[in-house]
Amino acid sequence: MKLLIPMATSATEPAVYYDPELLEAVVGEAMRRQGRLPKSMLLEIERLYQTIEPENRDKAFQSLNREMFENQGHHAWLLERLRAFPEALSGIEESFVHRARTPFDAGAELRDRKDGGKALFICLEPTVFEQRIDGFVNHELQHIEDILNPNFGFYKPRPLADSPARESLVRDRLKAVWAASVDGRLQRRGLEPLRNEAARRTEFGAFYRSLPDEALQTAFDKLWSENSPKFGDLLDMARSVSATLAWAGIEDRESYSDDQIDPILCPICRMPSPEKELDLSPEMIVEAMGDDPEWLPAFGMCSRCAEHYRVRTGQW
């Protein structure tokens, strides 16, 4: 079992444990960027090789990576981000920070502890530390605060919709409307959002592209400016155009049906694609599920994505 590396927090805050592979990757990236190791670091590495037995070197180098990680300010930066979300911190017992191998792996989630408490698991790419990407971490932690907030009323709906194609659309819509709500609140708090208002407005419009501009702008403005959203409202918006219009206070809703308005998106690339390819080889399925663990073969994919996976698996 991999041993995680604890780092200091205040006595009243949850402990933070780091994956040693993440520390090594972050420190290594900083060294590569600088082009050479500081003389003091070269001397320390030489000392470890000369004085530490081979079977104990891993632990010694982990301690060295921890020291460098802290000296480079990475731990202090993450603590600052965590402390910006006190409701999230108060709802967890400990935090675990792991390395994300791909962008698809990056994110934050809550897990249940055996004692009934909650643990926060954060997966981050090494570049998030090196580049101090506040917006990504802020966005993930605001999601966690939402989930922990009883007034938000989060639950896991199963199923999201009554068909695979519809399930994919509702899932993507829910991600989009929740993300817009999160970034709007972050911006008003003076915290860096993951995406700005213009980008979220464009993303929102892609899911309701047949709505008149005035209705579209009214619905988005209310979503972006709402300080106390409810998960049930966001889910209703994802499931139904008429619910979106009702939530925004738009009375003329009868002329807009979900079938009339909803673009059928490719579940892989999220581009409009009414036709789906379902005749997929096992190799293509493995690759697609590796890229998006939530994707299922029954969802199919557009012809462009199918061609991409055929080339990728040598079947062209």
What features would you highlight for this structure?
single chain, 316 residues, alpha/beta, 3 domains, five-stranded mixed sheet, 15 helices
Give a short synopsis of this structure.
The protein is of the alpha/beta class. It contains 15 helices and five strands. The protein folds into three domains: 5-133, no CATH class; 164-261, no CATH class; 270-316, no CATH class.
Q: β content, as a range?
A: 5-15%
Mean pLDDT: 86
Order of H and E elements: EEHHHHHEEEHHHHHHHHHH
Number of E strands: 5
Share of residues in helices: 40-55%
Structural class computed from helices and strand pairing: alpha/beta
Low-confidence stretches: none
Radius of gyration: 23 Å
Tally the helices: what do you get?
15
- Give the CA-based shape: globular
Count structural domains.
3
Largest sheet: 5 strands, mixed
Give the strand order of the largest sheet, numbering strands 1, 2, ... along the chain: 1-2-3-5-4
Give the N-to-C terminal Cα separation: 42 Å
Description:
- The chain has 316 residues and is of the alpha/beta class.
- It has 3 domains: 5-133, no CATH class; 164-261, no CATH class; 270-316, no CATH class.
- Helices cover 53% and strands 8% of the residues.
- The protein contains 15 helices and 5 strands.
- The protein has a 5-stranded mixed sheet with strand order 1-2-3-5-4.
- α7 crosses α8, α8 runs antiparallel to α9 (197-207) and α8 crosses α11.
- The mean pLDDT is 86.
